[in-house]
Amino acid sequence: MSALLHNACTFLFVPANRPERLAKALASGADMVIADWEDAVAPDDKPAARLALEQTLQLLSTAERARLLVRINASGTPWFDDDVQALARLVAVGAAGTMVPKAESAAALQQIAAAAGPRCALVPLVESVAGLDAADALARVPQVARLAFGHLDFQVDAGMQCAPDEAELQPVRLSLVLASRRAGLARPVDGVTTDTRDSARIESDTQRALRMGFGAKLCIHPAQVATVNQVFAPSEQAVAHAGAVVQAMQAAHGGVCTVNGKMVDAPILHMARQTLARHAWAEQRRMRAG
User: Fold this and answer.
1) Structure pTM?
2) What is the set of domains in the chain, with CATH numbers?
3) Which of 106, 12, 21, 134 is closest to 68 using CA atoms?
4) Backbone angles phi, psi at 49, to 5 degrees
5) Which part of the chain is the HpcH/HpaI aldolase/citrate lyase domain (predicted)?
6) C-alpha to C-alpha distances, 43 to 9, 49, 54, 78, 189, nearest whole angstrom
7) Of 96, 100, 197, 219, whose Cβ has the fewest other Cβ atoms within 10 Å?
8) What is the pLDDT of residues 97-111, one digit of tens each?
9) Which of left, alpha, beta for 275 (phi over 0: left; psi -120 to 50: alpha)?
């Protein structure tokens, strides 16, 4: 898996049948862009959406192609086989891989990987109770890069009626975080915030994702990207503290020490290094954009 996909904090959807939006999405600051052949495209428009994306990809640079995932239609739908064949052609010319909706079966993921080739990264979207039950198996499929949570479809499948804070989904989110950790994957990708104008809500939802152990969030509008990136990037104070922790532990030769009156030991050092790694990624993004 590429370092880009491993570290990405923002995954922005764009309808694949609107190729003029792809350049805007790639310029939005999003780490990854997901060209959508599934929910965003009506059934009659799906063949044209495949063709449009293949044609548009030819106009992109190598670096832009590496930031592109394609959300195919789910296994068992009438469009799945054609989608997978088109996906293989896109991956062959540099696309990163695919987001797999309604992921419930390791065998289906393996089928996609076999058809699209070893360079195709897989991001299974867990959107059902069956998908949650299979989370460990999905996470352990060799080409899976990260798990993602489709919390809106999950609520429908489970018959849930969540409050605005979605507290009812905390056990589900935690299950995906733990399944990712057990499989040695990068931290999972949390679901969308449907309100594209409420910046406080997108910030709150992203803060929750960060607290729960997610490393990224799905976005449905370019206006959401900057806020999500900002939340996942540590503050200047957090970076300064993390640097102080690392320096103090080095001076103590790995032993227990204190920083600002608080004990520092191995777990605190590990968290500090994670903070510095997130900061380094945010700086890389800033330099790419600048």
Assistant:
1) 0.91
2) 3-232 (3.20.20.60), 236-289 (no CATH)
3) 12
4) -65, -40
5) 11-222
6) 30, 10, 18, 9, 27
7) 197
8) 999 999 999 999 999
9) alpha
